[in-house]
Design goal:
Number of domains: 1
Radius of gyration: 17 Å
Structural class: mainly alpha
Number of helices: 3
Shape: flat
C-alpha cells in the first residue's frame, strides 16, 4: 500500500513540477511583448505559446474572478498568476507530506 502511494505521489509531484515550468513559460511569454512590442510568436513558437496559454488559462481565470485585479491609479495588480502558482506549491507540499 505504501509503495503504491509513493508511486502515485511521485507521479503527481512530477506533473505539478511540469505545470510550474509551464507557468514560468507563460510568465516569460507575457513579459516579452512588454520589452519588444513587435514580437509575435511564429511557427513552432506559436504552437508552444498556444499550448502554454491553453493549459494555464483556466486556473488563472478562476482566480481572477475570485480576486479581481487591484486598481492603484492607472495600474492594475493581477493576483491570478500568483494565486495559481501558490496553489500549486501548496498542493506539492501536501503531496510531499502525505507520501
Amino acid at each position: 500500500m505504501g509503495a503504491i502511494l509513493s508511486i502515485v505521489g511521485g507521479i503527481a509531484e512530477l506533473v505539478l513540477t511540469l505545470y510550474v515550468l509551464v507557468l514560468i513559460a507563460r510568465l516569460v511569454l507575457e513579459y516579452i511583448p512588454l520589452f519588444n512590442r513587435s514580437w509575435r510568436p511564429k511557427g513552432a513558437g506559436l504552437v508552444a505559446a498556444e499550448i502554454v496559454f491553453t493549459v494555464t488559462d483556466p486556473p488563472i481565470r478562476f482566480f481572477r474572478r475570485l480576486v479581481p485585479p487591484l486598481r492603484i491609479g492607472s495600474i492594475a495588480l493581477d493576483f491570478g498568476f500568483m494565486l495559481t502558482m501558490l496553489s500549486v506549491f501548496i498542493v506539492m507540499a501536501l503531496i510531499r507530506a502525505l507520501t
